[in-house]
Amino acid sequence: MEKQEASLESFLKWAAEHGVSDSPPSSSSSLSSSSSSSSSCLGHSLSISHFPQAGGRGLAAVRDLRKGEMILRVPKSMLMTRDSVMEKDQTIAHALKLYPSLSSTQVLAVCLLAELNKGRRSVWYPYLMELPRSYDTLTTFGPFETKALQVDDAVWLTERVVVKAELEWREAIPLMKQLDLKPQFMNFKAWLWASATVRTLLSIVISAQRIPHPLLKISSRTLHVPWDDAGCLCPVGDLFNYAAPGEEIAAFEDSKRCVNGSLLEVESFQNGDGIENPSLDAEEYDSSSGRLTDGGYEDDVQAYCFYAKRNYGKNEQVLLSYGTYTNLELLEHYGFLLDWNPNEKVFMPLELDMFACHSWPADSLYIHQGGWPSFSLLSALRLWATSPNQRKSVGHLAFSGSQLSPENEKTVMKWIISRCNAILESLPSTIEDDRSILCTIDEAQQLEALEKPSNLPSAAAMEFAEFIESMGLGNGRKNGMLPSSTKVERAMGKWRLAVQWRLNYKKTLFDCISFCLRTIDSVETLQR
Ligand SMILES: C[S@@+](CC[C@H](N)C(=O)[O-])C[C@H]1O[C@@H](n2cnc3c(N)ncnc32)[C@H](O)[C@@H]1O
Question: CA 297 → CA 76, 80, 246, 293, distances in Å?
Answer without folding.
Answer: 8, 13, 23, 11
